[in-house]
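Entry 14. Ran structure prediction on the chain below.
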Amino acid sequence: MKYTYLIALATASTVLLSCSDTKENVAPTETTSTNLEKFYTGEAPEGARQISEIFADPTPGREIVVSGEIMGRSEPFIDGRAMVVLGDPTKITPCNRIPGDLCPTPWDNCCDDPDVLKKSVATIQFLDEEGKVLKTGLKGFKGIKELSYLTIKGEIAEGSNPNNLLISADSFHITDPSPYLNAKAVSGGLDGEVTVEGDVFIYTKKKADE
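Output, structure tokens:
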């Protein structure tokens, strides 16, 4: 049996992981909304940086260009809202790029170290004229799905800090296929020990002096 490890608590030294019988990925439904069209650009903005680099200075209001793949959560999209989680493919690895890993939701990055994962993902939001998140699902627009590669031009939003990165998009571009489609795994190894108690997997991180 293939187990998928889901991180339940990423900030503690001991993290509980559970076996997950995940549902099949549902094909995206093409949205008919025109609200997202104004954000889309046919050419990728220049000067894109990695999410992990942006974390070095998460000052709200700073204009940035960032790129990454849609990953970092088992459900990176928010139903009915133009929000998505973007991950840094130079720091974290989807399970389908780890040899022998058959996880049905490879974009959840369940084999990455929780501390690395936390500093390698950003939430992207698309706002209306009143500064509210668009009530339009992003999945399916222009074929966007899990592991799609996006380049975002925008600014760091209020609420961002060294542990949380929220970006308000001004424009975005989709690169298909992702330039990291056939990349080698940059992670995929939990730095600790996993023990099994029934159907529960318990991941214990190594101490700093080990």
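The helical segments are 51-54, 114-118. Will compare against last week's run tomorrow.
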